[in-house]
Amino acid sequence: MRRGLLILGLGLAGAVIAYCCFYLAGTATPREWLRSQQPELAWLKHEFNVSDSELSRISQLHGAYLSLCKERCRQIENLNNKLTKAIGSAAQVTPEIEKLLDERGRMRTECQAEMLKHFFAVSQTMPPEQGKRYLAWAQEHTCLSERVMNHGSASDASHRE
Amino acid sequence: MKTADPSKNDEKLRKVLKEWRTDASLPPGFQEAVWRRIEQAERTQTTTAKPSVWAVVADWIETMLPRPAIAASCLVALLVIGAATGWAQARHETQRVGDQLSVSYIRSVDPYQPNS
User: Fold this and answer.
1) A10, B66 in Cβ contact below 8 A?
2) Is A107 within 8 Å of A76 (Cβ atoms)?
3) Is there a contact between B111 and A1 if contact means CB atoms under 8 Å apart?
């Protein structure tokens, strides 16, 4: 019995060690991403086979884009507040409300255009095939793909004449 | 040294047992108690005739596992199971972190993404 238990114990210990070795080896890459200063960009590097020099350029583009993006967000937020006030103190659509809506719309369009410009710039930094893939992926996952329009759907019964 | 003849000893013992008499009476319910114990012993024997799972495993560990071929197969099987489980778990974890970081990247560049 003792010998059998010893063999079983050795087998179980071996299984645990094998589990740990394979788990650690298999998670080396994601652990490296999470350890980096910008985990998202580390993941991007891996996902789109970006070289170190390309990643450094993408990091610069990313940083520059984010600072301008934050400024635009701040401006849209200001317009939102003004619009809320204007709507709250009016009984109908006033020229001021129309102007604010127009301005906010333009800001949003500018925001999306800048985002798209950034995606093009990043994609051009990548190897051509990966750049194409990145563009398609970014377009699919961001607000640029506004596919679902409630009023555009043929099956929308509420807007049938 | 010469030992006594065993057949002579047996003869003596038989004689003594034939002459032996006792006046001590049996305690009340002695016979019933004896039969009860016999029945109990038989019942226990019947129960142990069907071995439990643990008994089977223990017996296998004791008798089969020490055989070199079975021991080697068992060790290899346990190592493969451990390695495969670790690898599968690692792939799952890599996928999870990748998904999380891709969402995080998209949120960082697209302010219109929902927060949740």
Assistant:
1) no
2) yes
3) no
B67, closest residue in chain A (CA to CA): A4
Which structure tokens are listed for A4? Answer: 């059998």
Q: Rounded to an integer, what distance in angstroms lies between the CA atom of residue A48 and that of residue A126? A: 8
User: A161 CA to chain B: closest CA distance, Å?
Assistant: 33
Decide if A80 contacts A70 (C-beta within 8 A): no
Dihedral of CA atoms B29, B32, B36, B42 in degrees, nearest 10, equals: 150
B47 phi-psi bin (left φ>0, alpha ψ -120 to 50, beta other): alpha
pLDDT confidence of residue A86:
94
Kindly state whether A29 is in contact with chain B, defined as any CB-CB distance less than 8 angstroms.
yes
Burial A110-123 (b: 16+ CB within 10 A, else e): ebbeebeebbeebb
Q: Which of B57, B91, B99, B110 to mutate to test the interface with A (most CBs of A within 10 A)?
A: B110
Across the interface, do B86 and A34 touch by the CB < 8 Å criterion? Answer: no
| pLDDT tens sequence across A108-146 | 999 999 999 999 999 999 999 999 999 999 998 888 877
Residue type, A19: Y
Q: What pLDDT does A154 receive?
A: 55
ipTM above 0.85, yes or no: no
A26/B66 touch (CB, cutoff 8 Å), yes or no = no
Separation between Cα atoms, residue A138 and residue A48, nearest integer Å:
12
**Cα separation, B6 vs B11, whole angstroms:** 9
Q: What is the pLDDT of residues B97-107, one digit of tens each?
A: 999 999 999 99
pLDDT on residue B9 = 78
Task: Report the pLDDT value the prediction gives residue A155, as an integer from 0 to 100.
Answer: 52
**B contacts of A139 (beta carbons < 8 Å):** none
